[in-house]
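ESCALATION

Customer reports they have been waiting on this structure for their group meeting. Please prioritize. Original submission:
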Amino acid sequence: MQVNAVSIHDQIRIKSRKEIDKLREAGRIAANALRVAARSVKPGVSLLELDKLAESYIRKQGATPSFKGYQGFPATLCLSVNDGVVHGIPINYALREGDVISIDCGAKLDGYHGDTCLTVGVGRISDKAKDLIATTQLAMYLGVSCCRVGLRMGDMATTVQNFAEERGYNVVRRYVGHGIGRDLHEDPQVLCAEQAPGTGFRMETGMTITIEPILNMGTHNCKVESDGWTVRTADGQFSAQFEHMVAITKNGPEILSYPDPEFELDDSL
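Update from on-call: job pushed to the front of the queue and completed.
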């Protein structure tokens, strides 16, 4: 359902600098946990193993997994492999050479949530898969660069969609970004496609949102598996996702989900 930007504007929670600092700390823990899991990605490792590693790290920091128990979701990570789009439940699937895996992680600390996602390859992957991953990451950063006071959501969405489609990919419409704070999902919804320039909510200082484009090699259409969570591409082609939390400030976008330097991946942009 399309959200009317005018009607939700008064529901968007503007954050103070103190609240943004708390979100940054939660985002840092989520980002570190995400990379703890990503560093362990290799052929033969199971999705359940990755989930346990991330949960252990989060709890050792005095935080709790944001996703576990959220609307009944059973795990710490959403793990989506190959044609998986979002919300994949970790199972005892052993990763294989050439797989692509999107890892989405959330952590709650001191009442505030962190939420971030990246996609990596398993061992040696195809050039097509490499290009999908690289393009999706660039699309996310392009979206982040549009998070400036006075611009509208439609300006960002159009920029991301045009970039992806010019490179032969389709942006998933059904699953979008969101506001974030004391609640994991707050207003507004943050689209990365099918929003005209100059429309949607106007960016204001103190808004905190997630930019999380999902790009598919084929159709943007998706289907939900019988478990009620796992979403896959309708045509079985690969999908990739990247996500950062962003605070909109008078000086431009401020990413709130950077990891500590020692947790960075070698191929990060």
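Sent to customer with the following note: The chain has five helices and 15 strands.
Escalation resolved.
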